[in-house]
Amino acid sequence: MQPGKREVNRRRFLSAAIAAMGSLIGAAVGVPAVAYIIGPALKQQAEDWVRLGAVNKVELGSPTLFKTTVERQTGWISAQEEVAAYVLTENGQEFSAISNVCTHLGCRVRWIEGEAQFFCPCHNGVFGKDGSVVSGPPPRPLDRFETKIEDGVLFIRRS
Amino acid sequence: MGAKLGNWLDERFGWRSVWAAIFLRKIPHVNWFYTLGSATLFVATLQIVTGILLTMYYVPTPDHAYDSVVYITTQLPAGWFIRGLHHWGASAMVVLTVLHMLRVFFAGSYKFPREMTWLTGVGLLLIAVGFGFTGYLLPWDQKAYWATTVGTEIAGVAPGLGPWILRIARGGDDLTALTLARFFGAHVWVLPAALLGLVSLHLYLVIRNGITAAPERKD
Predict the structure, then answer these.
(1) How far is CA A102 from CA A54, A89, B5, B159, B173, in A?
(2) Which of B113, B130, B155, B163 is 20 to 30 A (C-alpha) from B136?
(3) Of all residues in chain B, what percent carry a pLDDT higher than 90?
(4) Which of residues 60 through 79 in chain B touch A, CB cutoff 8 A?
(5) Is 60 exceeded by the pLDDT of residue A6?
């Protein structure tokens, strides 16, 4: 074997060893770093039942607005968050809860009794009593919440 | 393919001569103690990476600092690992810098023409200590609070200017939100800028002047 060739082999070996160790160290820091950065994004919002109020406060045949606040944990800060829903019943037995957040750009819609429609002040989105789109820019009906009643108290499920 | 891309880039950047100057330079016969400077540079890089990661969640105000550190350590995936690396890396920085300095001293490597390499190195030691001092306050727990109280108090007993140094370090007479904010600012902006500048100069001098051979008995 020529002496020159031997030197090239040694150099190649050391280069490969350094590259391997470098990759190993890079991965040892890089993989935890990615987990660390995307961690909070992967966390699922806890689905939970939110207590709205007494079921007998719902007016028959007319959407009634319920507002309540829930404790919400974001990172290390726990804050109050307002939850609002229009609750509708036609027969006093079956209840449906509709979100008051416009599906267009997130403004709050309001029930106009005289016209029997939900109206969004931002871009004139109009929804029917059941939340379906009547006119304006909203791309889909108002969101609905799952509901349940326990001991005369109405709950909705946030998802 | 790789060689072709390398040539294409080299024609535009001339990176091969830079690479050769940094990594393929001739070095005399030395021993493992001569790697302490590179070890310090490696840990410094690790500190920069983990430090940047910590700022993604850390908040330097008295009502959030401690809680955000607890959140990093207990709630985030690998948060304990990132913070742990940064915590232990801080001590490693000071230890390695001092060991590197001792090697330079006992090998006589600070002599002509490398006096400025030594002086910039002394500056870097001070910066490493400054990082340690300002970073120690940031978790905002009891140990951090009282260590900084004592540390700034010590600065305060310097003759003449002492009381002024204390007030400037704390941003007032007491250790407050202002102290935390300015220590954070120093830790993530002032000191890193100074570190990058001085490290660049230090490395330029190491490459420009070459490194010394390990002294032998007859020297």
Answers:
(1) 25, 21, 53, 67, 53
(2) B163
(3) 94
(4) 64, 67-68, 70-71, 75-79
(5) no
Q: What span, in angstroms and rounded, lies between the C-alpha atoms of A119 and A112?
A: 7
Please give the ipTM for the structure prediction.
0.88
Are residues A104 and A33 located together in one domain of the fold? no
CA B66 to mean position of chain CA atoms: 24
How much is the pTM?
A: 0.82
**Torsions phi, psi for B214 (to 5 deg):** -65, 130
Q: What domains, with CATH codes, occur in chain B?
A: 29-209 (1.20.810.10)
Shared domain check, A56 and A11: no
Residues B141-154, mean pLDDT to the nearest whole number: 96
**A45 has a pLDDT exceeding 70:** no
List the helix and strand counts (H, then E) for chain B: 10, 0
CB contact under 8 A, B77 and A77: no
Split into its structural domains, chain A has a count of 2
Range of the domain at A31: 1-43
Chain A residue closest to B47 (CA)? A29
CB contact under 8 A, A77 and B57: no
C-alpha distance from B75 to closest chain A C-alpha (Å): 8
